[in-house]
Amino acid sequence: MNNEKEKHIYTVSEISRYIRMSLEDSFPAVWVEGEITNFVLHSSGHMYFSLRDSGAVLKCAMFKRANEKLKFKPKDGMKVMAFGRISVYEARGDYQLIVEDIEPKGVGALQLQFEELKKTLAKEGLFDPAHKVPIPYLPTRIGIVTSPTGAAIRDILNIARRRFSNVEIIIIPVKVQGESASREIAEAIRQFNRLGNIDVMIVTRGGGSLEDLWPFNEEVVARAIYDSGIPVISAVGHEIDYTISDFAADFRAPTPSAAAELVIPRKADLVGAIGAFKDRLRNALGSRLNIFKERLSTLSTSYIMRQPMNLVLQYAQKIDDLRKDMRTAADHIVKSAGEGFRLLIGKLEALSPLAILTRGYSVTIKLPDGAIIKDSKSIKKGDQVQTRLGKGKFRSRVEEIGGE
Q1: What are the φ/ψ torsions at residue 209 (nearest 5 degrees)?
Q2: How is the chain split among helix, strand and coil, in percent rounded to 5?
Q3: CATH code of the region 2-106
Q4: Where exactly are the structural domains of the chain?
Q5: Are 122 and 64 in contact (CB under 8 A)?
Q6: Termini Cα distance of the chain
Q7: Which residues, listed in sequence order, are joined to residue 34 by a DSSP beta bridge?
Q8: What is the pTM of this model?
Q9: Topology of domain 114-265, per CATH?
Q10: DSSP state letters, 116-168
């Protein structure tokens, strides 16, 4: 009985709580390496997955407040190193790692994020060559989005002064490094588009590490470049550096200096080209004038130029001949038509019933309806009839009707 009084019976919740507290005290902060499996992104924004190696599986939970800072998207099969603390989910009695941060193993997080964003934007068509527009050859006003104190703007201004000082350059100063840099760069691009008086825009900065160049890999910058109505040249870092803005821009320059040389031609070269064109035009005009002079000289010594009235008189005589021929042809047509008309009249008269009457025949009709009498049966004694002769007619009364 005493033993039963001294016996302490734990509840399941108490055991789970004690285990959780023990684990949390023993593993307050650990790095765990493994392969992600069973990854689920919950509608709440929390991530649930497991880390496994060849011998075991560890359940993990990464809550929204922690995973919002990730530079890449975890997925099944990815080998990572996860930082967090060991705890117990008491409702199921599962021990798990509460993850605070994840780093890809073998590939840097930034590089992985770069590749994933590049793939996503490419699928949306932000890098489509059909969307890109040509860079104007000789812009009068160039917009620059960069740091006002960096080497990039100094290089561009030096090249502009040396090559073509007439070009106007407008700078919107922005941060090119740090968390707020991408937003400032995107807003500067949109601001140049609102101004609407820029021929071409250069988005640029000097070299640096991947972390230094990262603002130019942000989605907000890529979309601002894609939406720009002004042609955009991306000139970020050194020749070996590639950023998302390079793919979204209308043209990628390997360096800021190369971008300046692309859009600002040498004034001396242009002046020389204009001089060469002037010489070619002068020579071409001179050759054409000589050709026309020779033609004019030939025409001035020709027969037509020496006796111009002879040609007029010849055409006048030719017109008279044509008139005569037309009159003769018309008379012949009228004569032929008259003969044909008379011949036709003769044929019609020969076929006319009246022509028969001239040869002693007559036509008798019954009055008053005027029906021609062809048979004696159609009349009776006392009927009034009218007889037409070759010349004249007379009326009579039927007194007697004979046979056939």
Answers
A1: -75, 175
A2: 45, 20, 30
A3: 2.40.50.140
A4: 2-106, 114-265, 353-404
A5: no
A6: 170
A7: 80
A8: 0.52
A9: Rossmann fold (3.40.50)
A10: HHHHHHHHHTTT-GGG--PPPSS-SEEEEEE-TTSHHHHHHHHHHHHH-TTSE
